[in-house]
Structure formats: structure tokens, C-alpha cells
Amino acid sequence: MSDLRKSVLGMHAKRSGLAAASKQDFTPVKWTEYFDSEEKIQTEHGNFHLFSKGNEGPILLCLHGGGYSGLTWSLFAAEILKVIHCQVKAVDLRGHGNTTTNNDYDLSLETLASDVVEVANYLIEKVGTPIILMGHSMGGAVAVEAAYHIKSVVGLCVIDVVEGTALDALSSMQSILRGRPSHFKSLPHAIQWCYKGGQTHNLEAARVSMPGQIVNMKTNKLAADECDDIDMNNIELTSSSHRELVASSYTLTEVAEESDESDEAKCSDCGKPPLPKSQKTDVFKCPNNFKVKDDGPQYTWRIDLSKTEQFWTGWFKGLSQKFLDIRIPKILLLANIHGLDTTLTVGQMQGKFQMQVLARSGHAIHEDQPHNVAEIVSGYLVKQKLAEPKSDFIQPPLPSC
Questions:
Q1: Which residues contact 9 (CB under 8 A, 6 or more apart)?
Q2: What span, in angstroms and rounded, lies between the C-alpha atoms of 142 and 384?
Q3: CA angle 266, 267, 273 (to 5 degrees)
Q4: pLDDT of residue 42
Q5: How far apart are CA 132 and CA 168, in angstroms?
Q6: Extents of the domains making up the chain
Q7: Buried b (16+ CB within 10 A) or exposed e, 132-154
Q8: Amino acid 297: pLDDT
Q9: Strands, E assignment, 187-263
Q10: 8 A C-beta contact, residue 43 and residue 115
């Protein structure tokens, strides 16, 4: 576990030198670069927002992890549509993104799964095609639960969540959440933290995904909706290629580095991050020639995950056995083989599911390695005859089982 305790700022030094840093672009990218459309689905409990790409084949209903939004699937959606016929539907779960409900902080597993069932039933009635559930972290647990209640579910993909390791790490989750910045001075500031802090190791993913996780403190508008009209008055270009800005307490925190065994850093939503040993404010180095006026915080998190602690255990308790018992084709993608618990290890040996480990990836595997995840998932769906390949499809090596 010690290899996960990395300095938030130190991560960048291992990726590149200062020359490379000065060329990095932390401006946001609009969701329209990856998805075709967005829509709201009204249910008894709220209006659920989702992004869509593709118009034929089975529906891949994608569920994000805690604190993320449907935009976390942007790069994956663009990649998988290149090789198979399918429709990607990425929903903002309750309390996240642009979804609004009667109680945004009721994140119990039962409520989240019920929401997904309602959305899935609407899509089935409207489109009439089978559903393949994909879930990352918290969303993986929700996908497993919802799969038992959706008749048209034909496949299940769970990304980087395992009951044993998730439950073991819950005791340190509040400390992990407190270690994140509570506010950001600007949208590029937030994107830079997302990338340099290791929430994603893919800068392109950070540029499209992070705006879906924060809101403007003055307007309460989701930052993703401001990508076309960013307040550039709050950002000044400087002649210096690498300015130092002194960070205030709401800007950035640094976690003391213990080991350089791994380049991984984990996100705050499910399970894997360890307890930071120490925290301190530090100088915020702002590449890409940005100088942010110190007008105070402009953005904060869409949802305060620390207020949902009462639901955390319920997300993961019994997850492994429920995953094994569901009788549909299923695949598990992990960032680290050592995270596999006893129940899943036995199930894997018995061939009850397919598994693939993607090394050199952080917790958000589908953001860090969207091409590889799309290749694995598409190959698996074609193998199971759940989706049709496109003309340039090449069958990848089958996942280990």
C-alpha cells in the first residue's frame, strides 16, 4: 500500500520535465467532441441526464464512480464505436452531473440501482435493444445490483472495484476526501489538479471529465456547461513558461511521498487510496502560461462525498458473491491483480467470469487507457455474440479467465 502514497505535485515530475510541462493544455474540452447528443429522462424520482453515442446495436449503459459524471466515459465511447456496432449511454447518477432528483444525497445502493433500472426500462421501451451494464467503482456495485432487476440485461462489465479491498479502505476515505482541494480558482486550475494529482493519468480525459465534477459557486452551473464561454478574464497569459503561484488552503494540498515504487495515484471514490501520512499546502506550479487572478475560489465539487459515508459499506458488502451469482456473461477489469479478494479468486479459477488486468493504470482505467479498455470490451462482446464487429475490427487476445 505504501506505493500508493504519492505526492500530488511529485507525480508530474515523473511524467515530464519543465519543458514538456509548459506545453500542456489544461483548457476544458466540450463533450460534443465525444458524444453525439444528450437527453433528460424523467422518472418518478427525478430527471436523469445522459450522454449518447451511436444509433445501432446493443446499449452499453455506463455508470460512473462516486464523484465522477457520465463524462468519465467520453474517450471510451469514442474508441469503442470505432470497432463494434453499439450505443453508448453514459448516465449522470443521482447527485452527480446534470441529474436532479428529489434527494441528491440518498446514495444508498438500493436507491441508485432503482434509478438505473428506471432509466434502463425507459431505454429498452424506447430503443428495444438489449442492455450491457458497465460500471466503474461505485458504479460497478450499482451495475451488479441493477443487473438482477433488468430483464433485458445480457452482459456485465465491472471496472476496478472488489469487495474486500474496497471495504478495507473505507476507514481512510474521509481522510482521502479531506486531502483533496475543496475549491478551485478556475476550470483550468481544476483540470490541472485532476491530471497532476493522479485522478486520471490521461490529460485528454481530465480536460473533458473534470468539468462534469465541479460547479460554479456563483451560478451553481455545472462547469461542463461553461466550456463554450469560459471567463477568460479570470486567466491572464504571461511571458513566463513556468510561473509559480502560491496556493491558498482551498487550492491544493500535498501528500508526503513515502516510496517511488509505483507511479500510481488513486482517486477518492472507492476503495483503494490509503491514508495520507501528512498534508501541507505548497507552491502551485502552473504550466501552460496560465496566471490565475487571485479572486478567490470559483468552483467546488458537484457533490460532497463526505456526506454520503453512511452508504459506503452498503455499496460493497456482498458485492463479490452477487457478481458471481448473476447468470450473464461478465468481465472484470482491474488496475492491479493484488486487489482480487478470496471470493473472486475462487470464482476466477472456476471460470465464472473473464478478467483482465491493465497494468500502468490508475483507478479510472477507462480514462487512463480508453483504447485498451475498448479493445478488451469489444472483443469480449463479439466473442459472446452480444455485438457485431465493424469491418476493421481485429479480435484482440482473449482476457484471461
A1: 196, 252, 254, 282, 285
A2: 23
A3: 50
A4: 95
A5: 29
A6: 2-389
A7: bbbbbbbbbbbbbbbbeebebbb
A8: 84
A9: 214-216, 235-237, 243-246, 254-255
A10: yes
pLDDT in tens, 303-357: 999 999 999 999 999 999 999 999 999 999 999 887 788 899 999 999 999 999 9
Longest dimension (CA), the chain: 61
Place of cell 487550492: 251
At residue 20, the pLDDT reads 47
Question: Do 160 and 141 contact (CB within 8 A), yes or no?
Answer: no
Q: For residue 115, which amino acid is it?
A: D
Annotated active-site positions, please?
A: 137, 160, 363
Please tell me what DSSP assigns to residue 169.
H
Burial 298-327 (b: 16+ CB within 10 A, else e): bbbbbbebeebeebbeebbeebbeebbebe
Residues 207/171, Cβ–Cβ less than 8 Å: no
Which residue's C-alpha cell is 477489469?
333
CATH superfamily of 2-389: Alpha/Beta hydrolase fold, catalytic domain (3.40.50.1820)
Say what the pLDDT of residue 247 is. Answer: 34
Q: What is the pLDDT of residue 179?
A: 92
Other CB atoms within a 10 A radius of the CB of residue 25 amount to 14
CA distance 64 to 44: 22
Q: pLDDT value at position 185? A: 95
> Whole-angstrom Cα distance, residue 129 to residue 44?
23
* Residue 77 backbone class (left: φ over 0; alpha: ψ -120 to 50; beta: rest): alpha
Mean pLDDT of all residues in the chain?
A: 81
